[in-house]
Specification:
By secondary structure, the protein is an alpha/beta fold. It is built from 5 helices and 5 strands.
């Protein structure tokens, strides 16, 4: 009987190894998908160069992250910056950079309170800009930060 013990132990070890191996073969692999980086760009000043620079940064940021499958960008505009985004007077370079970012899938939001204060309805703004989810832009910015968006103010 003692000569059968090593054979029995060997059989048990082999069976256990096979069971573990088969288990790994059919077990789903751990997820390697990384979460999208979430970024909030904030533009509130009336300086055209700063607003244009912000749009260039957004486009470069998307490129640096490997595309919008890796990054979620929100742009929140309010206050005097609204004047820069009027459809009938927008700077061509700013408009082109914004359109490029919008085409890549960013969300561009204009403060609803600013639209009222400046007497500018959504229809008079550059195409693609939407009203902020919350009427007050600073509340929207705080909400996005609370949701994990990294704040960038060029």
């Amino acid at each position: 009987m003692s000569s059968q013990k090593p054979a029995l132990i060997y059989s048990l070890v082999v069976s256990l190894a096979l069971a573990v191996g088969i288990g790994f073969a059919f077990h789903p692999a751990p997820s390697m998908a990384k979460d999208k980086i979430k970024v909030l760009y904030h533009v509130d000043g009336k300086d055209l160069a700063t607003a244009t620079y912000a749009m260039a940064l957004i486009n470069k940021h998307i490129e640096a992250e490997g595309g919008t499958e890796n990054i979620d960008v929100k742009l929140v505009v309010h206050g005097p910056a609204l004047e820069l985004f009027k459809a009938d007077s927008v700077d061509p370079q700013l408009k082109a950079k914004l359109k490029s970012a919008l085409d890549k899938g960013i969300d561009a939001e204009m403060c609803q309170v600013s639209m009222k204060l400046f007497g500018t309805p959504l229809e008079k703004l550059v195409a693609g800009v939407q009203p902020t989810e919350h009427p007050v832009a600073v509340k929207r910015i705080a909400d996005l930060q609370q949701q994990g968006y990294i704040y960038i103010k060029p």
